[in-house]
Amino acid sequence: MSGILPFSSIVLPNWCTISRRVVRMAAAQTENAGLSLEAMAIKPPSHPTYDLKGIIKLALAEDAGNRGDVTCMATIPFDMGVEAYFLAKEDGIIAGIALAEMVFQDVDPSLKVEWSRKDGDYVHKGLQFGKVIGRAHSIVVAERIALNFMQRMSGIATLTKAMADAAHPAYILETRKTAPGLCLVGKWAVLIGGGKNHRLGLFDMVLIKDNHISIAGGISNAVRSVDQYIERENLQMEVEVETRTLEEVKEVLQYASQSKTSLTRIMLDNMVIPLPNGDVDVSMLKEAVELINGKFETEASGNVTLETIHKIGQTGVTYISSGALTHSVTALDISPKIDTELALEVGRRTKRA
């Protein structure tokens, strides 16, 4: 169902000077329609060089190419205004609302965006949780980029929430296994989903991994070199070392008992052993945690899935890291619809609303 609204119901850019009309196409009721919530419910991680606005501009420029939206220009009257609704087509945790709003404002500051949910809220299939009002051209140009961010972030947040709940009392972390250029976006989604961030990059934490250890000539040599570097450079940051065996754990503990160290966390890598029946053996991990006995934070890594994480979390580890949070994203299905009545009808037919 559609109807003509008076132009005074929305504000369009003042450079549109010809006769204007506004089409409203939405018969279905939006939950808490008109309720405006603070979009920036959870702020992105602080990064010294990452340009979030620049990422938005890059995405828009990539989409527009050298001509802009030729379909929009061919089919939509330049002066038309519309309302478009955000429709969840599956259950999950919504994320990227604040980023989507930044996209719409970058394309056209006159667009008005309203939300009935905020980042981190649960949405169910069929829920209309927001709307954008303004010039149709601007909305159509912005909506796919906004949705690309929102769907990816919501997928990350949904998996993070499930894993964070299952991991308790341990905390869930992502890794650096992210889509290049979207590192901060993915890590922001992890926060929205209830996880915690690992290091943001190579600059904000020392993480001594297997290759560093091999090159340094052993785990004690590697930790000693880091301690000397930290002191020489007068740095204040977390230091983590990866261990792969109980012998390496014991060697790190022996070094720490004999030397002043900047070490804060020990990673226990691949100490979760998969079994033929699909279960996992966490006895080695648990023994390592007991050896460390609270002297350092601990982090379990390897063979972490939604099915195994609860058992891992019961071993006493402080953190559990999973690259799958950001490198194997299943996007949450979200659509912006102008004719929501037809969209819901099609969604019900395809079991997606």
Describe the structure.
By secondary structure, the chain is of the alpha/beta class. Helix content is 39%, strand content 18%. It has 12 helices and 16 strands. The protein has helices spanning 52-64, 70-75, 97-107, 136-167, 183-192, 210-216, 219-233, 246-258, 283-292, 309-313, 324-327, 340-349, and strands at 3-5, 22-24, 81-88, 92-93, 112-115, 122-123, 128-135, 171-173, 206-208, 239-243, 265-269, 273-274, 280-281, 297-301, 319-321, 334-337. Strands 1, 2, 3, 5, 7 and 16 form a 6-stranded mixed sheet that branches. The protein has a 6-stranded parallel sheet with strand order 8-15-14-11-10-9. Helix 1 crosses helix 3 (97-107), helix 3 (97-107) packs antiparallel against helix 4 (136-167) and helix 6 crosses helix 7. It is elongated. The two termini are 18 Å apart. Residues 1-37 have low confidence and may be disordered.
Tell how many strands the DSSP assignment holds: 16
Low-confidence stretches: 1-37
- Tell me about the biggest sheet? 6 strands, mixed
- Helicity range: 25-40%
Q: SSE string, helix = H, strand = E?
A: EEHHEEHEEEHEHEHHEHEEEHEHEHEH
Please compute the radius of gyration using only Cα atoms. 25 Å
Spatial shape: elongated
Overall pLDDT level: 88
State the main characteristics.
353 residues, alpha/beta, 6-stranded mixed sheet, 6-stranded parallel sheet, 16 strands, elongated, disordered N terminus
Summarize this, please?
The chain is of the alpha/beta class and 353 residues long. 39% of the residues lie in helices and 18% in strands. The radius of gyration is 25 Å and the shape is elongated.
